[in-house]
Amino acid sequence: MSTVRVFAPASVANLGCGFDVLGLALDEVGDILEMTVSEGSGISITNRTDVPLPEDIGQNVITPVIRKFFAMTGLSGRVDVTVCRKIYPGSGIGSSAASSVAAAFGMNELFGRPLPMKDLVVCAMEGENLASGGYHADNAAPSMMGGIVLIRGYEPLDLIPLPVPGDFYCTVAHPEIVVSTKAARGVLPSAVPLHDAVTQWGNVGGLVAGLFTGDVGLVGRAMKDVVAEPYRKRFIPGFDDLREKNLSAGAMAFNISGSGPSVFALSGSRETAVRAGALMKEHFTALGIGCNLYVTKVAAQGARVLAQ
Ligand code: HSE
User: I need a surface site. Which of 4, 90, 151, 269 has the fewest CB within 10 A?
Assistant: First the structure.
């Protein structure tokens, strides 16, 4: 029997223009799992947090991740999981990815690291698919690897770590409203007009170029989304107004974080990032909505083992 305690960070997906292909890791918050493997078979999941999780373990994202790990490695065993810390589901900061990544990473540690990191992301995507009805890796990859990651392709998975400029500050507000990723994906059209596609891929290229040249202004200019945001912003009260306030206060970009309802601002200094956070808090408070705020840099490290 062996036990491991693992952490996987929250993440911001899409970064405006990069629907399903760009994401970054946030170190302020994340999930902690304790996992034990022993002889036998079966999975148990105990929730030690006050965040409600499905009673049916088949509906918990951790379960398909463990099954995928066994399927990919040919290994077997009984796995008992305790959820010790949990990001609220439906938050827009990669809650399902954090659990999925922690589960995949923990399994790999328990079994002597048979899988490379990319395969662990493949395992984690099973959890994402259960949660959202889609195999996207833009939360799971940065949560696993840390930093900012481009998913260059899905077939096969091609993960490109991108450089993070020194003056890259993130402000994320998580308002206390729930928007399920499944619902937020469900409102998207299945086709994108060519003109919008041109805008979007120009911005993805600009964002990647800005990261490589350390030009945070270019990154901000490129963080625009004409594909998903027009359909999703209705889930976030006063979204356009809040963006205007953030940009006027000096933020370089303001977008939905992943599928929402969290929102994300990019700033070139900590002072601006703090100011953006104050505006977000004020905005949601005025609407009678509580919110959690994170002002942070990109997390350099992704999933990791914690001391017992
Ligand atoms: N790319 C995904 C989406 C991220 O926007 O649906 C979900 O967090």
Answer: 269
Judge whether 249 lies within some domain.
yes
128 pocket-lining for ligand 1 (C-beta < 6 Å): no
Beta strand pairing status for 169-175 and 263-267?
antiparallel
* Contact (Cβ atoms closer than 8 angstroms) between residue 93 and residue 172: yes
Q: Name 188's Cβ contacts closer than 8 Å, sequence gap at least 6.
A: 227, 228, 231, 232
As a whole number, the mean pLDDT across the chain is: 96
Whether omega for the bond prior to residue 156 falls within 30 degrees of 0, making it cis, is yes
Q: DSSP letters of 30-44?
A: EEEEEEEEESS--EE
Q: Is 143 in the pocket of ligand 1 (CB under 6 A)?
A: no
Q: Residue 201 belongs to what domain range? A: 169-297
Confidence grade of residue 59 (pLDDT, cut at 50, 70, 90): very high
Look up tokens 């889609």; give the residue.
Answer: 134
Pair type for strands 22-38 and 253-256: unpaired
State in Å: Cα 184 to ligand 1 middle: 8
What would the pLDDT profile of 281-292 be if each residue is shown by its tens digit?
A: 999 999 999 999
Q: What is the mean pLDDT of residues 25-40?
A: 94
In the chain, how many domains are there? 2
Residue 303 lies in a domain: no
CA 132 to chain centre: 12
**Is it the case that residue 96 has pLDDT exceeding 90?**
yes
Active site includes 39?
no
Residue 91: per-residue pLDDT: 86
